[in-house]
Structures are given as structure tokens and as C-alpha cells.
Amino acid sequence: PIYATVENVASPVLMLVGYLLMKVNPWLLVALIALVGLAIVTVLVWAVTQLRRLGRGIGEVIGLIETHPRAGLAIVAEFLIWGLGWLIWKHWVRGAVRLVFWALWMALVIFGIPALGAALALAVAPTPFLEFLPVLLVVTAEAVAIMCGVIAGLSSARSLLRFTRREVPEYPVVQSESPVGAA
């Protein structure tokens, strides 16, 4: 939903910019196309590297679940409910603080954003041409809040994974599946 919203907003803006640049100097339009292409390639390379890192991390967690279930399942729990993995490892303060932030985040996602959307819907009810605005803002805010929650969960699970690398004896080493150097 968020990408469709961004695309729908960016489309008329880019068309207007393209039209104005074409009227001023067509080479400016070529430069804009080159910049957009460069931005797309940069984001694509960044996304692929992030997916590779995520894949290695997931493989490492699965290996950890098989060899040391307490450590592996604590990392999975930490991703889903921030602080729970740290509480499993008896780091009470860090776990409690993250658990409080997780509870506040859940309250925002479940109650806060819909309540603000309902208040906004009541505020714009007299103007029929703005009736789409509360729905658009609530969906966008929910998507952004959930993405931020996933990022926070991944970050917390990553820090717990680094901690378990030091604490778990005979930590499983994940080999790279790269064909470089393979015989």
C-alpha cells in the first residue's frame, strides 16, 4: 500500500517536472532520467545486499535453533516481541525496557492510529471531497508503524544474535554459498 501511495503522488509531480524541463531545455530532461535511473540502480543494489544479509542471518538462526534451541528460539522471540529474548537470557533491564517499548508500539498500532483516524474522519465529515483523506492517512500511518516495528524487531534480534555468538559454546558457523573459490 505504501509503494502505491508514493507512486501515485510521485507520478503527477514527475510528469509536471518533465514537462517543465522539456520546455526549458530537453537536455535537462535527459539529466533527470539519468538521475532517476541511477537512483533506481542504487536502491536495487542496496536491496539485494540487504536480502543477502537477511538470508545469512536467517540461516544462522535456523542453525542455532537446531544446535542450541534456547538461543535460537530466544532470537525468534526477540524479533516478534522485543525484549522477550533478552528476558530469556536473564538481562532484566534491557529486556524490560524493550518490552515496554514493544507494548507502547502495539498500543499505538492497535488503538492510537485508528483513534486518530476516527477523529480526523469526524473532523472532515462536513467536507465530502476530503472523505478519502482519513482512510489514506490511517493506512499510511499503519504501514509506516508496522515497518518501523519490523525494523526495531530485526535490530533487537540482531543485537541478541551478536550476544549469543559470544555466549553459546561451539557456535555454528554458516558457510557462504558463493561459488567463488569452490573447486
Helix coverage percent: over 70%
Give the assembly state of these chains. single chain
What is the number of helical segments per DSSP (H or I, 4+ residues)?
6
- Strand content is under 5%
Report how far apart the termini are: 46 Å
Helix/strand-derived category reads: mainly alpha
Account of the protein in words:
There is one protein chain. The protein is mainly α. The chain folds into two domains: 67 residues; 103 residues, no CATH class. Helix content is 82%, strand content 0%. Helix 2 runs antiparallel to helix 3 and helix 5 runs antiparallel to helix 6. The longest helix has 42 residues. It is flat, with a radius of gyration of 23 Å. The two termini are 46 Å apart.
In short:
Helix content is 82%, strand content 0%. The chain has 183 residues and is mainly α.
Summary keywords:
183 residues; mainly alpha; 82% helix; 0% strand; flat
List the helices and strands and how they pair.
Layout: H1 2-24, H2 26-67, H3 69-80, H4 84-88, H5 92-123, H6 132-167
